[in-house]
Amino acid sequence: MAGRLSDEVVLVTGAARGIGRAIAAKAAEEGAAVALVDVLGDELAATAAELQQTGATIASAVGDITDEDSVRRSVAELTADLGKPITVLVNNAGKNAYADATQMTVAEWDSVFDVDLKGAWLMARAVLPEMIAARRGAIVNIASIHSHLTTAGMFPYAAAKSGLVGMTRSLALDVAPHQVRVNAVSPGFIATDLLEEFFDTIPGARDTALAVHPLGRIGTPENVAEVVCFLASPAAAFVTGANWSVDGGLGIRYA
Length: 255
Known about the structure:
CATH architecture: 3-Layer(aba) Sandwich
InterPro entries: NAD(P)-bd_dom_sf, Sc_DH/Rdtase_CS, SDR_fam
Keywords: Oxidoreductase
CATH class: Alpha Beta
Protein name: SDR family oxidoreductase
Organism: Kribbella sancticallisti
Pfam families: adh_short_C2 (PF13561)
Shape: globular
CATH topology: Rossmann fold
């Protein structure tokens, strides 16, 4: 399959469902060999099988991005299965958080930052040496509108996602001399299981969200996937250190 990513090997974390699954499907459609990582083994296997039916080159590994040994094993396994090093990393895996800052335990704090921030670093650390040696590669970190705007009741999600955007900028500067690009994408309200969890947790959130969106609708995982695959592709060869909003205009609204 010819496409924007026909010469790429794309690794997507949190690929079993939602935005991650949509990114993996779009990358495969654009001609990439696609590696899938998730902790949800059964759902990951189903997603991999479905994508393989399209004729795409797919490999999958059950892995925990918060554990450095698991990250190392997963990357090694996927690289061996595909016979090529990873050229594009999409750090999509994440989790919501609904904590009280005065009651949250250290373990709960760590669990949020482990998934939403540390895991992205561990994955980047695992794939960057090959990218640097080859003098080519791209990383796209899936941040959130919460990296610059947030709402009550979601502590400390905004802090973790803000950290991910900061890490994006730092990595972009550090690896730019090696012709490796690092960008972030900040989705707003996207129709996923995590959004349904948010709507179920925050009273009235669904009606409020629909009312304030300039485009008058909730986004889809495919909307995010299109932007991610553009940033991963040679079409975005002069874009690095950026944070692209995919939020239906919500982030520019004054009130």
